Amino acid sequence: MERTLAIIKPDAVEQRLIGRIVARIEEAGFTIRAMRLEHLTKKEAEGFYAVHRERPFFGTLTDFMSSGPCVLMALEAPDAIRKWRALMGATDPAKADAGTLRREFGSSIERNATHGSDALETAAFELGYFFRGMEIR
User: Fold this and answer.
1) What is the pLDDT of residues 31-40, one digit of tens each?
2) From the candidates 115, 116, 117, 127, which is the catalytic residue?
3) In the beta sheet, which residues pair with residue 77?
4) Using an 8 Å Cβ cutoff, are 131 and 72 in contact?
5) CATH of domain 2-39+71-135
6) Using one digit for the tens of pLDDT, what is the confidence trace for 88-100?
7) pLDDT band for position 134 (50/70/90)?
């Protein structure tokens, strides 16, 4: 079994898509090991996306991620990282495959409804950033 971080971003929360996205997650065979609604501060968003600090989109990304509540989840499944990224689709919703979450619910590269870890090391950092060990069951 493998674990990954999943985030339902503020754009999808604002559009009332939490239930639809969670249903798709469960239908895809994931077990949700931890989940909570949280409104990130700008500082928390900057810490989470620190790897992108030098990128030109860092400011707008962290502004967006701290603009409203998001849903943080620890997902578990065999090959969870690859499986979650396939369910999400490409970062740019216009380039995402039909039937993926970002294609259905995203509107731009930044406002693309969901986030997911891209590697084991990233998942370990991201899960630890938002969840203490005892919060993940």
Assistant:
1) 999 999 999 9
2) 115
3) 2
4) yes
5) 3.30.70.141
6) 999 999 999 999 9
7) low
CA distance 37 to 39: 7
| Cβ atoms of residues 7 and 70 within 8 Å | yes
- Confirm whether 115 is a catalytic residue: yes
pLDDT, position 7: 98
Helix, coil or strand: residue 55: coil
Displacement of CA 45 from its chain's centroid (Å) = 12
Counting Cα atoms < 13 Å in the Cβ hemisphere of 32 gives 16
CA 40 to chain centre: 13
Residue 53 tokens read as: 């600090």
Residues counted in the chain: 137
Per the CB < 8 A criterion, the answer to whether 121 and 58 are in contact is no
List, for residues 97-110, the tens digit of each pLDDT value.
Answer: 999 999 999 999 88
Claim: this prediction has a pTM higher than 0.70: yes
Q: Could you give the C-alpha distances from 10 to 20, 93, 108, 114, 119, in angstroms and in order? A: 15, 16, 13, 9, 23
